[in-house]
Amino acid sequence: MRYRYSKWTPESMTDAQRLESLMSLFSYMLIQASGDVEEAMDWLRQLAQEYGLFDENLTFDDFIDKLKEMGLIEDAKDLLILTTKGVQRIRQDALREIFTSLKKGGIGYHETPQTGTGVDRLSETKKWNIGDSPMNIDLTSTLTNAFKRDGIDEFTLKEEDLEVYETEHMTSCATVLMLDISHSMILYGEDRITPAKQVALALAELIMQKYPKDYLALVVFGDDAKLVSLAELPFLTVGPYHTNTKAGLQLARNLLRKRRNSNKQIFMVTDGKPSAIFDDSGRLYKNSFGLDPRIVNKTLDEAVQCRREKIAISTFMVARDPYLINFVEELTKANQGRAYYSTLQNLGEFIFVDYIRNRRKKFGAGK
User: Phi and psi (nearest 5°) for 267?
Assistant: First the structure.
């Protein structure tokens, strides 16, 4: 690849910045195209023609060659396909995009207002207690306490002089992310599934990077619910399905029951009220009109069972349909969980703030 250099201006992007920007745009298009590289390339080509994204310094073909060189895409039977490294890049770009869009001070790192035994040292100190690690002794505060009591000439060190840094407790968390893949997620020309998938990809990358011991499972639900691997996430598509919320919650609960993590939670992203359940004979009963008491009551029963098993449900609604709002209010009461009326633009902020908040197990100081 050849580069030509022009006069620099404050508005100019470096070649590296420009390439990075194009790759982030391409990652988002891949999510929207459900991992279809050829389709995403067609969209990028159309945008390039309209907005002049490429020039003689970096042509469209140069960009494709760079993606291949980085191992993000590859040729397979005259088609370009996404590699495993390419899927990881999508997750990384999604995570970067979500965090960039968060308001300043929105989440920060995994800090908690509560303190206790743990591994991450804080600036505050407390009196030493049995069980506190000697590695966390604050030497300055400890010596100051001793000098105040007896002076420098009569220096002695007693147990009550010892002060240690407060620490924050890191606990494991088991999370099931439920994605609605019913037809309404693309109904009326509004794309609701792409930002939902982007958030799921970013959440997966966050956990794998910062909390590798955490458990994360992905459940999709339409007429039925099924467990899918994180590798399949970019390729998920919406189908001609109804919304079987009960099946999704039941599968999520069964998955979490097997985990020994301290905290268990379900994040459900949906845009529609429940409209289907399986009856006692195993047949799909569906009703898209209003709130069917038969469907709603069975779904609320599942929410109550989650509460009994100490599984919190956080529902993120990407629509404001009155029937949806009424149902979610009932579900939240039944589970004693949380509900968020979010737009497609701030869905990522809500989920990430809630994940990081819920990941903490709170302890009192000295316990």
Answer: -110, 115
